[in-house]
Amino acid sequence: MSTIRAPRFADTAGVYRVCFETGFTPERIAEGRPSPELLGQVWAGPYLAFAPEWCRVVVDTHGVAGYLLGVPSTGAFERWAATSWWPPLRAEHRIDDPALSPADRETAALLVTPPASPPALLGAFPAHLHIDFLDRLRGRGFARTLIDDLVERLRSAGVPGVHLGVGRDNTNAIGLYTHLGFAELQRDDGTVWMGRPTTS
User: Fold this and answer.
1) Total domain count for the chain?
2) Which residues contact 57 (CB under 8 A, 6 or more apart)?
3) CATH number for position 64
């Protein structure tokens, strides 16, 4: 049995584990020797710190198996992260540190130039989300449940739309998000940006 709920502080390690296991293939883990925490500190930790009330985790008998991480205002989130989240991580994980593994060096580069959404999207689609599941949750409808729930909560808060980014080569994810009501907004070198209004 799986339960969807708001994250708790004790879920942080589990969320980071899901981020790690979905972010690296076994081959990349063997080759790049990534630490189990750093990827989560980039892609998950700031959401849990900034707006845990907008996030959800899926928990089963083995622990956290998936999550939706979101913020209602991407601009506010990115301004907060620029002053409160990224600077101490940059100091702790210097990109020129010879002790960094190859994979962690790639992730540390994101601390220098943090992930950011295209500013042109933020008027109509100010919220954004990330969603990940371990294999044991896939195909069970959790993506629709979590995203529909977030959209409803955003609508109630007066937020007009939500966006996300997906790799240009990830045709399965693009198809899934299209099925869940997202439409392509723009593309850059490696990312398809998709958005969904909160009102029909």
Assistant:
1) 1
2) 4, 5, 6, 7, 11, 14, 15, 64, 66, 67
3) 3.40.630.30
